[in-house]
Please model this.
Amino acid sequence: MQVCEHQIPRLLAIDDSELIHRLLKSRLRGERLEIHAAMTAEEGLEMARALLPEVILLDIDLPDQNGVDVLRELKTDSTTHDIPVIFVSGSTDADARVRGLDMGAHDFVAKPFDMAELKARIRSAVRICLLIKMLAQRAQIDGLTGLWNRACFDQRLKQEFAEATRYGRDLSLILCDLDHFKTLNDDHGHPFGDQVLEDFAEILSSGRGGDVPCRYGGEEFVVILPDTPADEAMIAANRYREAIRNMRWEEHPDVQSTASFGVADLKCLSEVSTEHLVDAADKALYQAKQQGRDRVCLAGQSDQNDLKLSA
Amino acid sequence: MEERARPNEGSQSDAPLLSEYAGDADMVELITYFVGEMNNRVQSIEKAWQEQDKERLRDYAHQIKGAAAGYGFPQITDSAAKLERELNEEATIADLSERVEALIGLCRRATASPDGK
Model:
């Protein structure tokens, strides 16, 4: 869940002059940058969308389409609008610079370049880009547990669902809820309740690499299991179930916390959609609660598929 | 100026114009490329001028202005900037002619190494 800072930042130069491309590639060789270059506005927009570079150096005086229009397109496209754009111009026209900055450009450099200044401005833009990425990621993480939050879950589920239906792959969901959590909070206090939530989140995070554990809300959690059929998801859910029931806390050695689990996969749905998948897992979870908690239930099945392993 | 001065004839205005970065080992290859391209560039400018294609002439001037100083030729950038400005200001043919000649003269003198190669 870390921003990929190990990656070498990529710079996309959109400039109609081959001389400038060569100059940049050579003069920026010492910088920690991977340099890509486009000659036209069209090519530049295409590369920006495909590459999603950390910084764009845009010549505002492009021939086929004014650089201002490219900037406008970059800033209106949701996939590219967070990429810092440094626009470059040989003109000394202050109006153009003001317009560019007001349209959302990060910075401006004059052509011909002062190389030391250009390098510093690029470094500054890359820093901003990494901060934006970090903030965007923070906004998707649940503050208490460090798991992906609900908004992120909705988004990830859509992605994984699209992939699974497109390539005919399995996709399972585990929806789970800590049992009697309100009582635990009331009896032992909220700080301890938070501790249990954190520990349960830790258990859910220690699953298989490709699984996506999220906090659904309150004491409810959800794990997306791409490329996984229901029987494997049941095994994973039972592993989580045992881990939480076996957990003990030094400050409250008498406490045993359990959780109930509802599992659903695409095959058990009458109608295939993300909403139906969540709904099916939710019904299975409800069933697990109804049957006495501390168990795993599979969607679309009755009591015989209650795969509770221990009494 | 009916007869355009030819490079390397030894007169003051024909003296080779050495890149400011000629001593920078990292830059030599780049400057050599830039200078090597000059002939084509000069021909393009001459052609655009003969055809009185001011649009193209402005593009060339603009490009050279943006690049030359980066390759260590600020004089060429200055000269191209003046030409571009006069093209924008709709200067007279006579004035423009002088600017074009000046720019071409400088471009022809550009060199990557002190021995004028």
In short: Chain B has four helices and two strands. Helices of chain B lie at 25-50, 54-68, 74-88, 93-109. The first helix of chain B runs from residue 25 to 50.
